[in-house]
Amino acid sequence: MKIFIDTFSWAKIDLLISESLFDFDPIYDTFEVCITHFVSEELNHRGLSSCISSKLSILPVKNKRIYEDAISQGFDKADASILSYGTKNDDVAIVTEDRPLLLLGMSYKFAIMQLIDFCRLLNAMELITKRELYRINQKLRILENITKKKEKEIKLYLQR
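RE: above sequence
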């Protein structure tokens, strides 16, 4: 499965790693982690350490129609290029913290999710523990990255 991660999500991943809440190595080992050339430029500019170029696939824009549609709606090249890889199939997922991008991807019926939902998937796959998911959930709520509703949803998931 290919996982595309946007710049803002990489920034959150960097923060979680720096606070010892998350280890990204199992994700590199399990998924084909992908970014686009435009995302690569942004990541290099920001100097995010969790994004290890040698473990990534760096790809060009795929679906030009979707890319141009996203650009016409005001998205930057990085976000539009990630969206160009969206699909209704289970072989590609997009992780984004950009709510408008999330909504646009959902309107296309793409497999697109917030970082916390990706972490829930990682827990279901036993790549992170329930304790790690709980701590990530807490941190993202403190940062106001997720809503109270999403925080409660994750807490209910953890009680199962």
